[in-house]
Design a protein that fits this description.
Largest sheet: 4 strands, antiparallel
Number of helices: 2
Order of helices and strands: EEEEEEHHEEEE
Length: 170
């Protein structure tokens, strides 16, 4: 399927012939325009069978801008994240909006991407838990799996938490 023919079916039909169909309420996001070493990308999520809404979120940052105080030269950097929300979408929303920021603002980035990813994931968890627990009481119970791809120069780093996976094709 190319980006021009990628479609989604907003209807919640579950059975088509003898095959189970998983509802898909999020349009395919894709591009075949070259961006550095990225020749193209596509992302798609499905709401699953239990809920009537999709808790998944996606972050695509094709060109991470060099911070003002960063050491030069700055490599071409991109970030892709898919967040599989569980028990609500607040955690997946938080990760979509913040995880890449924690990674790229880490002192190890971009020269030690593996460490920056680990530090970014740790900081995101700490910050979200601070929002989810107030005065010893749990006020938010959602969670999220995550898979991210960080491209720095011509190197690709993939990190995941939970059962989310990515496919890389060359």
């Amino acid at each position: 399927m190319d980006c021009n023919t990628a479609k989604h079916d907003p209807s919640p039909s579950l059975i088509a012939g003898s095959q189970m169909i998983i509802p898909n309420n999020i349009p395919v996001r894709c591009s075949m325009k070259r961006n550095g070493i990225i020749a193209g990308y596509a992302v798609n999520t499905n709401q699953g069978l239990v809920r009537t809404y999709n808790e998944d979120r996606v972050a695509i940052v094709l060109s991470i801008v060099q911070p003002v105080n960063a050491v030069k030269p700055w490599p071409k950097c991109s970030f892709f994240g898919i967040y599989d929300g569980h028990g609500g979408s607040l955690c997946a929303d938080y990760l979509r909006d913040n995880l890449h920021q924690f990674v790229i603002r880490d002192t190890e980035f971009p020269w030690n991407p593996k460490e920056a990813l680990m530090n970014g994931f740790k900081k995101a968890e700490e910050r979200f838990m601070a929002l989810a627990i107030k005065e010893g009481k749990v006020i938010e119970r959602s969670g999220s799996c995550a898979v991210v791809i960080l491209i720095v120069g011509d190197m690709c780093y993939i990190a995941n938490v939970g059962d989310s996976r990515a496919v890389l094709s060359v």
